[in-house]
């Protein structure tokens, strides 16, 4: 574990686990964002990634995190509580939060003229569709020097321990692709592939400079969280509450496949979180 | 390779490949169907499994294959042509084909009073839904001593080479779960899990005597065929021709995941066909 991770864990004060922080440090180091950078983070949520970036850009850097979610969203602590806590941390002065979507933010007086980096840190799968990204990618042209997108990849690269997480992602995206029935409590609203992101960014005028795929640290909890959610009784009940019979039967088969993929790993399996694909554009 | 397989291949005269015949022999030997048995096969299609069973039941046995599909269905040779060819083979007198669904068949004069075994040989996923199986399972009570169901299982048991086939099955079932839009050219209309089959048979009054899961022989071609189909341009075009935008985007993500899962196996990968789950009821 690097000194950075220990330091960030101390500042985070229990807000994130060590493996989660490690995963984020791995992520942002791949982009090689220089000290002193001004970053705009789109879809910052509770600010877990915001904190890591604020640490890595150093004293002269700044991270502006925006998210349209209500401040009372989230459990066990709300978005507002989590953001307030980070603002009060040792590096809180490097962070600004705005409750806004990007278009509202860029139009408002809160908008600064130019950022070095605009970052989506695993926030694109929370968009209702790939198409919803398009106006944002267009609006960012001329407002940031670089665009960075990190998102899970569906390529488990032969790692069978990541199969339950892959199928859990497919299951959540299935539910949220039933017409007009998004459940915003799902972390995964739609699966947007690297291929799709490459297409959309190109159409919006961005030039891809670099891409990488990084494996998730063994202890990263997301796989366990997502799989646990999808195998819960409440999730199954919800799935059976909406849509036609064949839709529901299909969803049941997915849930069953997730159970089997977990069972095939043996008792108390260590689930691997999906790898992350990273792109950097200018 | 057993003598049985060589013998059946000779009788089949190019109708099926050696690995396909091997897979079917493995399947039916698991059920231990005695010589002289009278078998009713539901969803016999071109008769590939019919032939193998007719061979295994010996001279005193008989297999009645029923299928509601039109006789001109199928390519490169049609259902009718394939069935005719088998009827003219060395063991053709052990085989009877009827173009009928089960209910029509049992009501007709063609129905014999009692079978030793009623067999679904990987034909349940071709039903439009699990519920469509129910009347058939009920109708078979009292008409057959035993019920045998063999179907693919979604549990790839840690074999990453079977992941493309699993995802191809999920993709086809996805398309056919879009309301009122079955494409009967897909071999997989719906994924009916062992758990679901256990429930449905129990409700219909059947008692499960035995179940097994068998791996597919390495050379079995189904994985390659199914994956090839799903990655064809025509399949993608069809997927984009129907249903809402989010549905189509979801389907695109599945296709992309299939491509990746295949690529992750290296150049010219050997795709593994899904394992088969077998149940025997009385």
From TrEMBL, chains A, B:
InterPro entries: Methyltranfer_dom, SAM-dependent_MTases_sf. It comes from Penicillium canariense. This is Methyltransferase domain-containing protein. Residues 35-104 form the Methyltransferase domain. Gene3D superfamilies: Vaccinia Virus protein VP39. It holds the Pfam family Methyltransf_31.
């Amino acid at each position: 574990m690097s000194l950075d991770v220990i330091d960030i864990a101390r500042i985070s004060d229990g807000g994130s686990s060590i493996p989660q922080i490690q995963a984020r440090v791995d992520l942002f180091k791949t982009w090689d964002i220089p000290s002193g950078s001004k970053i705009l983070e789109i879809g910052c949520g509770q600010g877990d990634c915001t904190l890591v970036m604020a640490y890595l850009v150093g004293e002269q850097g700044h991270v502006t995190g925006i998210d349209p979610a209500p401040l009372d969203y989230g459990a066990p602590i709300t978005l507002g509580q989590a953001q307030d806590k980070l603002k009060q941390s040792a590096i809180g002065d490097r962070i600004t939060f705005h409750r806004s979507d990007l278009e509202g933010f860029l139009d408002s007086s809160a908008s600064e003229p130019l950022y070095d980096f605009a970052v989506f840190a695993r926030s694109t799968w929370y968009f209702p569709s790939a198409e919803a990204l398009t106006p944002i990618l267009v609006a960012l042209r001329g407002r940031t020097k670089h665009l960075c997108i990190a998102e899970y990849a569906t390529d488990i690269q032969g790692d069978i321990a990541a199969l339950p997480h892959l199928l859990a992602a497919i299951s959540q995206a299935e539910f949220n692709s039933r017409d007009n029935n998004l459940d915003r409590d799902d972390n995964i609203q739609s699966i947007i592939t690297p291929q799709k992101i490459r297409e959309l960014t190109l159409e919006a005028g961005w030039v891809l400079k670099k891409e990488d795929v990084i494996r998730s640290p063994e202890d990263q909890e997301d796989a366990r969280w997502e799989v646990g959610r999808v195998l819960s009784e409440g999730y199954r009940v919800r799935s059976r509450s909406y849509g036609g019979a064949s839709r529901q039967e299909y969803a049941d088969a997915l849930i069953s496949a997730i159970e089997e993929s977990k069972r095939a790993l043996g008792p108390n399996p260590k689930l691997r979180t999906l790898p992350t694909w990273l792109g950097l554009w200018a």
